[in-house]
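User: Some background: our group keeps a shared notebook of sequences we're curious about, and every so often someone picks one and asks for a predicted structure to add to the entry. Today it's my turn. The entry only has the sequence so far, pasted here. Could you supply the structure so I can complete it?
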Amino acid sequence: MDAESQENHLKAYGITYWVLSQQQKVQWLLNYRGGSFLLPDGERIRKECQIRGVSFEVLSDGQAQGILDAINSPSQNQDAVILEKAPKIAVYSPKGNQPWDDAVTMVLTYAEIPYITLYDEEVLDNKLALYDWLHLHHEDFTGQYGKFYSAYRATPWYIEGKKNAEELAARLGYSKVSEEKLAVAMKIRNYVIGGGFMFAMCSATDSFDIALAAEGVDICEPMFDGDPSDANYQNNLDFSKTFAFTNFTLERSPLRYEFSSIDMTRKRDNVPRDSDYFSLMEFSAKWDPVPTMLTQNHTALVKGFMGQTTAFNPNEIKPTVMILGENKLNGEARYIHGIKGKGFFTFYGGHDPEDYQHRVGDPKTELELHPNSPGYRLILNNVLFPAARKKKQKT
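Assistant: Of course. Here's the predicted structure to add to the notebook entry:
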C-alpha cells in the first residue's frame, strides 16, 4: 500500500473487505509500506486481486513472520492489527436523487464494498442497531435545508426537496422539519453512545452538532419553519450535548450559506488552491492504534478540497477530540475523531477529495481516474476501522 507499489489503493480496501466477508481474518500492518494488508494466501484471493487490478506480493510463511517480527520491535513505530469481521455498512441518505454526489457512496461503489441506504423512517424505527458503521450523507440536521435559500430557493430541486421534507416530517408525526431532524440526530447520538461507528463529511458534521446543541431552541427563521426563531437563541445553546464542537456562534442570516463559526470556508483567503494541502498527524502505532489506523496513507500530505463545511476552527473543537489532519497554513482542522460513550465518530471536512470546489449540479468524480487518491483512502480507513480487534487505548 505504499506509493510506488500499489496500482489501485482504493480497490485494495475492497479486496480486504471481501476477504473478511469470507470469514477469514486479515492483519493491517500499520505504518508498514503505507498501511499494507497481510491476507491469507489462496488462488481465489490472487485471482480476485488480478480481476480488480490490485497489486499484491506473495510471501512465504517465513517472510511473513519476519515482517511481523520486525513490526513488533519496540524500535519501530508500527503495529499489526487483526481485522476480524466485515462490518455492516449503512449510509444515511434520502431516497430521491440529489443535485450533488456523495464521496462515500462513490468510493464504496468503486471499491466494491456493499452498503445499504436508510433514511429518517428507518432511523426513527431503531434500525441503526443492525449496522456497525454509519455514514451521514450531505445533510442538514438543523431543518434549514442546507442554508441554500439565498441562491437556490427558486430552483425546482430546492422547492421539491423542501416539500418532500415537510411531508415526511408530518407523516412521521412532527409539526416541523427541524423537530423531526432533531429526533433523527438524537437516535444517531444514541447509536454512537451504544457502540456504533459514525462517519460524517461536509455539512453533516457541524449541522449534526448544532442540532444537538439547539435541542428545545428554535434557531430557524420563518422561511424555513413558518415562525420566527427564538430571540436569544445563541445564549440558549447547550454545548455539553455536542460530540465535537463547543462555544461556536450560529450564523443568523438565512441569506448566508453558512451554519456557524465552526466552518473555516470563509476564512481561507490566504490559502491558494495550488498550495492547499493538509498534513496527517503521526501517532504511536503501538500505543494509539485507533488514530494510527484512521491516518494510514501512502503520503503524509493530502490535497485539500472545499465543501459547504470545508474545515473546522480548532478553537471550537473540544479538548477530548483528536485532530487527525490539519492545514497548518490556515490553522484549521480538516479531519477529527472522538469517542462518545462506547462508540466512535469521525468528521471529515469538505465534499469531494478529488473535486476541489464541487458545486451543485456538477458532474460526479470518476474514481477510475483517481485509483490512488490519498483523500479517498481516509474514508476507507474509517470503513475498515470497525473490523479491528480493539486494544485498550492508552492515551
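Suggested note for the entry: The chain has two domains: 9-83, 89-387. The mean pLDDT is 94.
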